[in-house]
Amino acid sequence: MEQKNVLKMICAGLVLGGLSFAGAAGAAATFPDDKAGITAYVKLPAIGDDKLRILKESFFNSVESYGNHHAIGVKEYTTCQDYQSQNGKTNFHIYVGADGWIAAYLLRTEEPARLVDWDDPAGLGKTMLARIVEDTAQKIGAAIPADLAIKYYNFAYPDAAKMTIVKESIAANEINASTSAPVLIDDFSATAAGTMRQVSWGLYVKNSVCQDSGDTVALLIGGDLAGGSCDRLSYGNYYYVYKFNDHKSRLIQLSKHSNSSSANAAAAVVFTYSLF
Fold first, then answer.
1. Distance from first CA to last CA of the chain, Å, rounded?
2. 119/109 Cα distance (integer angstroms)
3. 210 pLDDT band (50/70/90 cuts)?
4. Cβ atoms within 10 Å of 11's Cβ, excluding its own
5. Cβ proximity of 171 and 264 under 8 Å
6. Which of 80, 231, 235, 263 has a beta carbon 3.0–4.6 Å from 88's, enabling a disulfide?
7. What angle do helix axes 49-58 and 128-139 make, rounded to 10 degrees?
8. DSSP conformation class of 89
9. What is the DSSP code string of 15-50?
10. Taking a C-beta distance cutoff of 8 angstroms, is the pair 250, 243 a contact?
């Protein structure tokens, strides 16, 4: 995967895969791999059933499964303070096994772009899923060693080997220093070295001048309109993923309507791809 505007890249080429429940009969039998999509996980030493009770009673908002040395629950997290009632909150799923497995995941029916933390303008490389794994470990008093990386796996595309997350933004009333004109377009290019499996996007727009004709900020992927927005946070999947598989550069463009130069606009795109 090759991108330009690399300073705006949140996570470049995160390695997917490596999640194996082999030899872990409890996790293999109880983790919902038929429902899970993009997943962040870590394997710690055994934590015991008493810790699972803590999660059930004082951490999860709701419990999906409990017993047989595991707990699965749902916890709501705010991913965007500006739009808490409009996609700014997401229910994340959490699996914890008494044998030490901790995994935070989105369902495969949900857009992977929901893992983006919109309130982290710096884009320091931590996804919501990684944060939830850390929060869960902290809740049960289990320390994640500094040299133990949180890893990712996509159960919907088990052959995917890499994930890249890019976040583009155009500030309100941003001016081009060379032309003194309002900045209305920001873009980058992407090329898949292997086979693209999934492209998911999120689009944030605040303080735009909504038009009678529709959305005031658009996200285009390879010339196709992926999504549009007017003062809201929206998510979706790009359905023409096969177009990346000719290994040619594709332009991803965030575009504001000329009447919406005062809007804050940001787009996040999550690419999942194999290396063959």
1. 12
2. 24
3. confident
4. 20
5. yes
6. 80
7. 110
8. E
9. EB-----TT-HHHHHHS-TTTEEEEEEEE-S---HH
10. yes
Other residues' Cβ atoms within 10 Å of the Cβ of residue 185 = 11
Q: Hunting for tokens 């908002």 — which residue is that?
A: 61
Write the burial class of residue 27 (CB in 10 Å: 0-12 exposed, 13-18 middle, 19+ buried).
buried
Length of the chain: 276
H or E element: which one contains 57? helix 49-58
Q: What is the pLDDT of residues 106-144, one digit of tens each?
A: 999 999 999 999 987 655 568 999 999 999 999 999 989
How much is the mean pLDDT over the chain?
Answer: 85
Show Cβ contacts of residue 116 under 8 Å, excluding neighbours closer than 6 positions.
Answer: 10, 79, 127, 128, 165, 167, 202, 268, 270
pLDDT tens digits, one per residue of 188-201: 888 877 899 999 99
**What is the side-by-side strand order in the sheet with 233-237?**
9-15, 162-170, 264-274, 195-206, 233-237
